[in-house]
Write a structure and sequence with these properties.
binds adenosine-5'-diphosphate; globular; 50% helix; kinase; 225 residues; binds thymidine-5'-diphosphate; single chain; five-stranded parallel β-sheet; dTMP kinase activity; 8 helices; alpha/beta; Rossmann fold
């Protein structure tokens, strides 16, 4: 019996804890017989990974940055996301367009109307039905105060161009996510990412159980701090 694909994205400010849970969720889906594609943005294809390296390392103006991110997204949609969804995979994608609205839009102050136009252009013309716009079926939003995220990241890894931004930048990004969630409340599931890893995992799995996408509460993940 073939099942429809599921497109799930993970969002939040840097250090909110997304990466700590995506692979665990992939395992939970695999344990229930689903084929899972785990991917990320910017990136997910050889071309998009080259664009990612530029975006994360080279200073550039906000329009250039947005164009590169959306170019990477188009390649990723065409090469990876759409084929995986057509096969019936569960696609778990670490960040997608909400990040562009939060980082380039709210964080850098770039024009949201231009971003909306790029979003429409890049996310249509992919599937069979004319006018269909690809959007996530669900976006898990790891909501965390920027001060806590900064503490978690301090010393944890070498910061990229965004992670090196001051806490004030992340306050704007966090507000950008909140604004975006308010425009599509049925698509967003907000997690309280300030809780310990085990409780975040419990919140995460219960979102999927409630939707009938995972059959049972899956055993604990992560554990320590
Ligand atoms: N619930 C949590 N409580 C405390 N620390 C956490 C928690 N989740 C993740 N961390 C730690 O915080 C840092 C950032 O987590 P990570 O999953 O890489 O975040 P993101 O992918 O959202 O940037 C890592 O050092 C990780 O071990
Ligand atoms: C997808 C996307 C990411 N970004 C930024 C957010 C992150 O700082 C960075 C990379 O995201 P991420 O892969 O989450 O970084 P890491 O794995 O190191 O936590 O790119 C944007 O600015 N706009 C976007 O549209």
């Amino acid at each position: 019996m073939s099942r429809p694909g599921l497109f799930i994205t993970f969002e939040g400010i840097d250090g909110a804890g997304k990466s700590s849970h995506i692979e665990g969720l992939a395992e939970a889906f695999r344990a229930q017989g689903r084929t899972v594609t785990v991917t990320r943005e910017p990136g997910g294809t050889p071309l998009a990974e080259k664009l990612r390296a530029m975006v994360l390392n080279d200073p550039m103006d906000a329009l250039t940055e947005s164009l590169l991110i959306f170019a990477a997204r188009r390649d990723h949609l065409c090469q990876v996301i759409e084929p995986a969804l057509a096969r019936g995979d569960v696609v778990l994608c670490d960040r997608f367009t909400d990040a562009t609205f939060a980082y380039q839009g709210a964080g850098r102050g770039f024009d949201l109307e231009v971003l909306s136009k790029l979003e429409l252009m890049v996310q249509t013309g992919l599937a069979q039905e004319p006018g269909f716009m690809r959007n996530p079926d669900l976006t898990v939003w790891f909501d965390l105060a920027p001060e806590i995220a900064a503490q978690r990241l301090a010393g944890a890894r070498v910061p990229d161009r965004f992670e090196a931004q001051p806490v004030e930048f992340f306050r704007r990004v966090a507000q950008g996510y909140a604004d975006r969630a308010a425009t599509a409340p049925q698509r967003f599931a907000r997690l309280d990412a300030a809780l310990d890893r085990h409780r975040v995992w419990q919140q995460l799995t219960s979102v999927f159980v409630r939707r009938g996408w995972l059959a049972i509460m899956v055993a604990t993940q992560g554990g320590g701090q």
